[in-house]
């Protein structure tokens, strides 16, 4: 096992830049990504706390004045990546994208603090970070849930982190692509196009992005004006868990937020209303087109991560989760493999992602330890057998996308070392 631990550390250090880490060491993702950095920081915390802190501090340095932390920070401006900094044309102290990503920072920070004793100097750094994260969460509540419903919206599929999931097919089909749309994508030149989103998806991503830019990324306008507005179960589950963890972090540093306490309570009540008791499934809401979205995505099981107090519902969800990949050799496919939209190799339309397994494992630990351990064991074995790939086939375990993928290495380390006093 020591050799695998060394290899995982080598992947992270091989992708490291000054103060941040690339998702992979090729041209596919030549920048800093928001939730990638959170997972990466957790990996570093097992062997170099300074690198973990640097990763998060760099991300917070790119925070916008209104509180948003962008989904990409462009530290290197000389890349052929699309869309690059000039296409987004925004950012505060660092060139960035104009959208965000799943807010996992509070969760990661709490996990790091739970297992690390920190000195007074680091305490001051952590406190600063916590204040930045609180500002970020308040931005979500104010601008992504202006009606104070208890559920936040995403305004671009990229914000979900699971870009081309079938969850977005219906709302994306309503996005009208302009005839004169011009751009040059590069991802499908670096990686086999079979593993990447289709051109039609990219046309719509770019159309939505251009519309956001046209509106100067104004969060006051965009909730109503955006071409895409979806309440997603997975994203809201992460946000609910992050709010709960942030509240605990605030207490640790003698800080308070009455607004956060009230919002957590509202979210707890509202998110369970996205559950169809007859069909025993969760659904998303396409607010733009006033429709429910019923797709058996693994991300719906992130609800276990939110730690709802409803034991009966949690047990129903776990029962369904056991059926999700029951016929597949490798857990857990991003979309149920018997569904018509399932694609074995294409990005978020079927492959196994280590971060999804990790999130669900974390959510199961205090609810069904036996099943949690099974997911943990199978995830560790998959990476040991097939390598630190971006994503994997649920049928053969074959790795797709990028190799030397940072969050795969980081979360592999966390799964192996979580109970060790390293």
Element order: H for helix, E for strand: HEHHEHEEHHHHHHHEHHEEEEHHHEEH
Query: What characteristic shape results from the CA principal axes?
Result: globular
Query: Rg from C-alpha positions?
Result: 20 Å
* Distance between the ends: 15 Å
How many β-strands, per DSSP? Answer: 11
- Helix-strand makeup class: mainly alpha
Tally of individual domains:
1
Could you give the order of strands across the largest sheet? 5-8-9
Put simply, the count of helices is 17
The level of helicity is 40-55%
Biggest sheet layout: 3 strands, antiparallel
Mean pLDDT metric: 96
Question: What's the gist of this structure?
Answer:
This protein is mainly alpha-helical.
Descriptive notes:
With 422 residues, this protein is mainly α. The protein is 48% helix and 6% strand. The strands form 5 sheets. It has a 3-stranded antiparallel β-sheet, covered by helices on one side. The chain has a two-stranded antiparallel ribbon with strand order 1-2. Helix 3 (49-61) packs parallel to helix 6 (120-143), helix 5 packs across helix 12 and helix 16 (369-386) crosses helix 17. The two termini are 15 Å apart.
């Amino acid at each position: 096992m020591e050799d695998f631990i060394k290899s995982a550390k080598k992947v992270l250090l091989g992708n490291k830049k000054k103060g941040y880490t690339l998702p992979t060491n090729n041209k596919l993702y030549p920048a800093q990504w928001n939730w990638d950095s959170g997972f990466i920081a957790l990996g570093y915390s097992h062997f170099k706390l300074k690198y973990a802190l640097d990763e998060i501090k760099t991300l917070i340095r790119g925070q916008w004045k209104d509180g948003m932390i962008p989904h990409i920070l462009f530290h290197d401006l000389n890349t052929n990546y699309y869309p690059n900094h000039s296409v987004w044309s925004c950012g505060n102290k660092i060139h960035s994208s104009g959208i965000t990503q799943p807010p996992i920072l509070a969760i990661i920070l709490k996990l790091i603090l739970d297992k690390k004793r920190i000195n007074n100097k680091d305490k001051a750094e952590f406190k600063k970070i916590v204040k930045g994260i609180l500002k970020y969460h308040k931005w979500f509540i104010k601008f992504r849930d202006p009606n104070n419903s208890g559920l936040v919206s995403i305004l671009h599929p990229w914000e979900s982190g699971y870009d081309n999931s079938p969850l977005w097919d219906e709302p994306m089909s309503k996005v009208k692509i302009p005839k004169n749309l011009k751009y040059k994508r590069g991802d499908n030149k670096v990686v086999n196009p079979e593993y990447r989103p289709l051109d039609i998806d990219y046309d719509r991503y770019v159309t939505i992005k251009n519309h956001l830019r046209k509106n100067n990324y104004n969060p006051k306008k965009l909730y109503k004006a955006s071409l895409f507005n979806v309440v997603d179960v997975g994203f809201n589950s992460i946000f609910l868990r992050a709010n709960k963890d942030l509240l605990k972090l605030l207490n640790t540093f003698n800080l308070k937020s009455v607004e956060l306490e009230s919002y957590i309570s509202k979210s707890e009540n509202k998110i369970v209303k996205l559950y169809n008791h007859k069909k025993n499934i969760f659904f998303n809401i396409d607010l733009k087109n006033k429709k429910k979205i019923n797709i058996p995505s693994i991300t719906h099981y992130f609800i276990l991560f939110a730690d709802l107090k409803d034991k009966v519902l949690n047990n129903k969800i776990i029962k369904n989760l056991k059926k999700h990949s029951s016929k597949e050799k490798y857990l857990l496919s991003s979309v149920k493999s018997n569904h018509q939209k399932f694609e074995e190799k294409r990005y978020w339309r079927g492959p196994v992602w280590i971060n999804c397994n990790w999130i669900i494992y974390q959510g199961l630990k205090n609810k069904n330890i036996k099943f949690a351990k099974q997911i943990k064991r199978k995830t560790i074995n998959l990476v040991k057998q097939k390598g630190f790939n971006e994503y994997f086939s649920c049928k053969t375990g074959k790795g797709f996308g990028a190799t030397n993928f940072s969050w795969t290495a980081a979360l592999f380390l966390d799964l192996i070392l979580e109970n060790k006093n390293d």
